[in-house]
Amino acid sequence: xxFVLAVRERNTKSVMENSIIKEFEKVRDIPYRxxxxxxxxxxxxxxxxxxxxxxxxxxGYKVRYRICKxxxxxxxxxxxxxxxxxxxxxxxxxxxxEIDEDWKIIDPTWDxxxxxxxxxxxxxxxxxxKLAIPSIETLTPEESLKHLKYITTLEGIESxxxxxxxxxxxxxxxxxxxxxxx
Length: 182
Known about the structure:
Elements (H helix, E strand, L loop, with lengths): L1 H27 L16 H14 L4 E9 L7 H4 L6 E11 L2 E5 L30 E2 L2 H11 L2 H28 L1
Antiparallel strand pairs: 1-2, 1-4, 2-3
């Protein structure tokens, strides 16, 4: 009887892992796009992290947001985009999920349509993924939440769009052009 219960538990865990992997892939493969107004749906790193956060919670996982500091220049973007005035210092959102009593990095940022340009994460349901963007500093979980509280306010969004909106639009357009070439 104990053997049968152990097999059932292992099979249930395997089914759950397969389901959460498929959910990760669905979110990852939403075309990455930075919202250009506060009313627009955001499918950038934070928008995708928000979607995946809810899914992990639904499946009973402990999950938390993480933020790292990045520089746009480290993405090797075309000159016509980088010459558009913008703040090169930016933040990148991803998740950490507790699996087997250890926090794992889960980053669904880039969609498969960008496979010729960026790292497209695969996930096995157990291990870390890589960060989608090279990090120059990682904030603690507490600092990450504090940072998120500001950047998700209307004031934070409008300030960011005022400074970086034209750059984001050019970046979005470039990504769309890359997807169409595939």
